[in-house]
Amino acid sequence: MKEITISPVTRIEGHAGVRIFLNDRGEVDSAHFQVVELRGFEKFLIGAAIEEAPRITPRICGICPSAHHLAAAKATDQIFGVEPPATGKKLRELLNVGQFVHSHALHFFMLAAPDFILGHDCPAESRNVIGLARQSPEIAKKAIAVRKFGQRLTEAVGGKPIHPANALPGGMSAPLTEGKRAELAVMADEALGIAREGWDLARNLLDGVDTEIGAVRTGFVGMTNQGVYSTYDGSAAMLGPDGGRVGSFSGPEYTNFIEEYSEDWSYLKFARFKGGDYYRVGPLARLNIVEKMGTEHADAALAEYRERFGTGTQAALAYHLARYIEFIASCERAVQLLSDPGITAPDIRTPVGAVVNRRGVGIVEAPRGTLIHDYTVNEAGIIERCNLIVATCQNNYAMDRGVEDMARRVVENGALTEAAANRIEMIIRAYDPCISCATHAIGKMPLKIECVRRT
């Protein structure tokens, strides 16, 4: 049996590969998305004080640290039995909004756009952000400006532009000053202007593209606050593959609905509904679940999106448009929060005392999808068990099956051209996977030992 390897997959966060197995006729027998990167956070958090979790877990990833920071903080709230005051919650939401602005702008303009603006068969040396900047310098400049706003927002609210530290049990450690609020409000208006202007590009991004490629039929999970799009506060709703509502969860009861498992070709774990149905998370899932975005321009874009894809699309490439609509919504929500006089109020934290609950589960939406932090502690608040379920794990099945679908379409006579390999990578990039967040493996991990004789 012949094997074709794509390594590494480009324009994603982290390291992954694709292995394609051919039969004797040169046809695709099977193909897999393969991750052999391991992060051990769930193990070395054991023995740490629970209040350290919001400080340690942002180091899991430099792209989406705010989501880990906030999921851990929400879990610690439950363990200490406290509810942050209104301003503390607003600041936490604003911190997550900043991450969405930064991450979605990065992926859409710099990682995904070259495939569609320059063409998927453009030479590899030009099919990247540098090539995009050469052909469309204004797009590149505006993308950089919006990302700058996202980072400045993270720094002002979270204390640092990367690996924020201001969220802690009961709320936040530092208020937002009026000076910072005014500065960020101006930047938010500019970012929203860029996002609105860019919709003219985004809405036509998939014109002429077969959106059935990489097809996979799954259910979906995503947070909603009474039907309205939300990334920080609400319950995670579940849709089955037929679009019917399966249930929802907002805490420890997630284990009643979701199970994790492993496959022998990847260290990256998988997740599925109990009962066997697979599901996806992230922008596509969230837009399939919500009734509305809750902001003017994002709702208008959602209406256009649903005219094309309906209310429950399975198309993997539709992730790109869904992500852009979330980008618009995040900019609009930043404008709203930064215009709220209460955002600079000093009441930002509820004092905490002893451990009240031995278990806490924090759930937020990360840019790539639903993020779950589950901690069990002893009476002194020392972590005894930790389980993290990240978006990339929950999308792992869909990426794996999408890779095989595309491989069967583009492998010809046992050969894979560079342009064809990029089409396979495009399916993976649609999910914007964050391999660094793939925090652990379950099951047995293969170990290769080599003995070398020195002479």
Automatic annotation (TrEMBL):
PROSITE patterns: NI_HGENASE_L_1, NI_HGENASE_L_2. GO terms for molecular function: metal ion binding; oxidoreductase activity. This is Ni/Fe hydrogenase subunit alpha. Its cofactor is Fe cation; Ni(2+). Ni(2+) binds at C61, C64, C434. It holds the Pfam family NiFeSe_Hases. Belongs to the [NiFe]/[NiFeSe] hydrogenase large subunit family. Keywords: Iron, Magnesium, Metal-binding, Nickel, Oxidoreductase. InterPro entries: Ni-dep_hyd_lsu, Ni-dep_hyd_lsu_Ni_BS, NiFe-Hase_large. Mg(2+) binds at E42, L388, H440. Fe cation binds at C64, C437. It comes from Methanoculleus oceani. It comes from the Archaea. Gene3D superfamilies: Cytochrome-c3 Hydrogenase, chain B.
